[in-house]
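Hey, can you fold this one?
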Amino acid sequence: MPDAMTSAPDAPQRPFTRTVHGDEVADPYRWMADKTDPELLAYLEAENAWTATHTEHLAPLADELYEDIRARTKQTDMSVPLHVTHTDGSAYWYYGRTREGDDYGRTCRIPATNRDDIPDVTEPSPEEEVLIDAQALAQGHDFFSIGLALVSPDGRRLAYSIDTRGDERYDLYVVELATGEVIDGPITGIGAGGVWAGPDWLLYTRVDAAWRPHEVWRHRIGSPADADALVFTEPDERFWVGVDTSRDYQWVVVDLASKTTTETHLLRADDPTGPLTVVQPRRPGLEYSVEVAPDALWILHNDGAPQFKLSRAPRATPGIEHWETVIEERPETRLTGVSVYATAVVVDHRTNALAGVTVIPREADGTLGTLTELTFDEALYDVGSEDSPDFDTDRIRLGYESMVSPPSVWEYQLATGARRLLKQTPVLDHPVHGAYDPTAYVSERLWATADDGTRVPISLVRHRDTPVDGTAPGLLYGYGAYEAPTMPYFAMSRVSLLDKGFVFAIAHVRGGGELGRPWYDGGKELAKPNTFSDFVACGHVLVDEGHVAPDRLLAEGGSAGGLLIGAAVNLAPELFRAVHAAVPFVDPLTTILNPDLPLTVMEWEEWGNPVEDPEVYACMKAYSPYENIAAAQYPAILATTSLNDTRVEVTEPAKWVARLRDVATNGEDRPILLKTEMVAGHGGVSGRYKGWRERAFQLAWLVDQAGAN
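Sure. Predicted structure:
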């Protein structure tokens, strides 16, 4: 292998032919499938060295962007305290605290005497209990992430789990809060999910060899882990298992879900060794979620309603034949969540690539009042209700942000509709640019026309002084999978780009959830190519309407969004000057053909099953980024990934970069780079300062490629 400091690595090729449905495909980099192979690890290290060499000139710009983030961020800060009433009658205010210089925060609480007066916790008080000091727990680890962090229903104990590799397998501990003593654990190698069942029992999930959460286990506090009992197992490899609890702590909720079908079981929390009761047995294509209230089950579902509707049913007879409709389906609106309180039902939804919240008053006898749709002043925004842990409450909280307004927490009075701003994330004065002024930026909605005539929304933001004359650099972001929406959001790191004259845009392509279930269906399985052509159409609108210069358009996406980037540059390599693909799913056919790989079988309902269906195989082969690289000049490419990623194996971007170097005709001004975090997972590095450093590096590379340095 050539010296990585003087030339790009040249990955070795080894003969391998894939034969499926009579189709033979040469894959000389198939050997990279074994990420424990010393030769692969050496290759990744060589790529890291080459990327470092090729980007060392960016250090001053990356430092500048990093310092911009630091300067604008209030580093010693706290979240808005949240009131929680426990089953023993005690009540506390819970909040998070960060300190300047710490990568990780603390979870704290103080006793509550009432829930009307939110305490000022700017400075720690003698009453403050530190429940989790993540900064201390992270010491000695290159990677650190908390999975579960739950106080017991009676407020006496804390269960928490940690991952120190990035592979999303956790070790669970229990702390007696009065003494700070770890009284249980570790229970090792569990999934991220878990829940208390009363004060003395925990239910947690375990994952199988394919990293699928497939079991629920019961643990009695103080008992050895090898005495834990299996509560539930899901043999169908399409389904994964999750656990939750009702707002009043009375019920454990066990959710089973595939991409197209769900099933919910209930367990009395005061009888954790008792039987599970199914709400509605699974039926192919039926999706539902359950909110357990003291008087009824509230069920959001798609039975005869692709955009979902809200029903309620008696707890004693929860089956579908007893579901009484509360909110009918609205064809233009996707209902996404429901929270039930003593005096109101709160429903979250999405309409036309915007989020919304509906409040329905609720009388003591269960009678429902008139729906109130909350309204907001900005044209583009994201909003959602924040789940209150108290059922008997007269207020809820709303989270709100836009592309120009930093995230804020609002209090909403259920009886009167009065709103109160509790906190907006501060943007501190910049030493050069001064105070942040949201009115200095313009956000707007554009529309692209896809190849089949479908109108695709775009959310765009720019500085008001950035001209719309075809000269500005621009960054187009996209995702487009799993019905996951990318809503108009605020990013502290983006402010620096806007101040440098960049345009930033989100392409709300099909396959995402911005326009509801039909929008998702229009970009999955055999319709997946729509996702990629939609993105290209959005890029053309930015250029054709003068928002971005033809030679200064950049693109970015991660995971399934990395697939989007890889497919888009195959479709239109001339459209983009440079792209950043994060943990990119760029060899999808190889992965989805192998049911032994993590999560593959569960993915067949998203992408189709190419093992059994030749049409799906042909469709995926036609859009797979790795399999469709042409002998053409591509954009400059930065692929970032992590060795311990269990969702998109490091193999995929490594193979993609190797083949791009083989086939693409790029010159030195359009480098193809791979950067691998050797101790991290799907979300990249852990710790906020390391995260800011990594984001600053990525943005510096993009800025440099756009000639905006």
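The mean pLDDT is 96. Let me know if you want another pass with a different chain boundary.
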